[in-house]
Amino acid sequence: MKWRVANTDGARWLEHDGKGWAADGQTTEEVNDAKGKPVPVASLAETYRPKGDGDQTWLYQAARSVIPGPVKVTGTPPKVPAATGDYPEGAVF
Q1: Tens of pLDDT along 66-83?
Q2: Mean of the per-residue pLDDT values of the chain
């Protein structure tokens, strides 16, 4: 799957070509700092735990969390996982 996440002025971006990824310097540094750690899921009040080095879903969520918005997503990004529904009673989102 080829996809790209970029902020609207194009200064911050990350793209995946189906084999590997590239990004601007600051995004590369922030994504590398986050490697192996859970990242927030953009549309849910949950985190996504990486499932290995080549996990595109983790990379996509990491890009969405470190690139300041608003962002434009192009191509076919990985599917965002569904909520587990395992929330504490009274949780507000």
Answers
A1: 998 889 999 999 887 665
A2: 84
Would residue 86 count as lying in a domain? no
pLDDT in tens, 46-55: 788 888 888 9
Whether 54 is in a domain gets the answer yes
Can you tell me the distance from the alpha carbon of 26 to that of 51, in angstroms, rounded to the nearest whole number? 24
- Contacts (Cβ under 8 Å, ≥6 apart) of 84: 46
Residue 83 lies in a domain: no
Q: What is the pTM (predicted TM-score) of this model?
A: 0.77
| Partner residues linked to 3 by β-bridges | 16, 75
Give the count of domains, the chain: 1
Alpha carbons 35 and 43: distance in angstroms, whole number: 20
Biggest alpha carbon–alpha carbon distance for the chain: 42
Would the pLDDT of 91 be above 60? no
Instruction: Give the domain extent around 44.
Output: 3-75
Report which residue type is found at 75.
G
